[in-house]
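FORM 7B: Structural annotation worksheet

SECTION A. Query
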Amino acid sequence: MNSDGFLETKGLTKVYSLGKINVVALEDVNLSVEEGKFLGVTGPSGSGKSTLMNLLGGLDTPSSGSIKVEGKFISELDKEELSLYRRYQVGMIFQTFNIISSYTALENVAFPLLFAGVSKRERHHRAGEMLEKVGLINRKDHRPAELSGGEQQRVAIARALVNKPKILLADEPTGNLDTSTSRQIVQTLAELNKNQGLTIIMISHELSMLAEFADDVIHLCDGKVVEQEKIR
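SECTION B. Predicted structure
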């Protein structure tokens, strides 16, 4: 991975203090991801994958090292700037879908736009466009209980992208899905990556899936990058 990436980390380290014990969750991670690339992240449990995602997503701050996105040091932003970064530059999806059970698919996708001061009409228009992109427009009026796990994850993807971020961070997005549905979800992400130029960083244990869809894969172990593979 080259040194002039759209997203870069240098010496990225996170240490948690548990009483008198320091636990190193991530140590000296150097990444460079070009815009529009699909990076896979893999490694055993406790290897630092989710810590990396939380740092890149602005949900946590590094102990040392830096994170730079489009030339701006994320690790140096104040609370307000960090909030804007999370709202507009980066979208996140997780293993748990985290969608609101009392809302329809359309209302769930439109929800983040409420905080951006977008009118109701425009919110629903943009949410409908995103549901169309993930192949769910015909389910827009269904609530989560009426949707399959794969459909709920598609709603979560659409919601993460409704503010048009340039980066999507996906933390084990297929962890609760069967193999066939998992492949459909990753294929959806790959299509968004290819057609929309969306930069994607995805954690997965499914190496065959990453080999099929990602451009590069990094392997983490004990908080360190132990291997980098260029796939295409």
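SECTION C. Observations
Strands lie at 7-18, 21-33, 38-42, 64-69, 72-73, 90-94, 167-171, 199-203, 216-221, 224-230. The mean pLDDT is 93.

SECTION D. Sign-off
Analyst initials: ____
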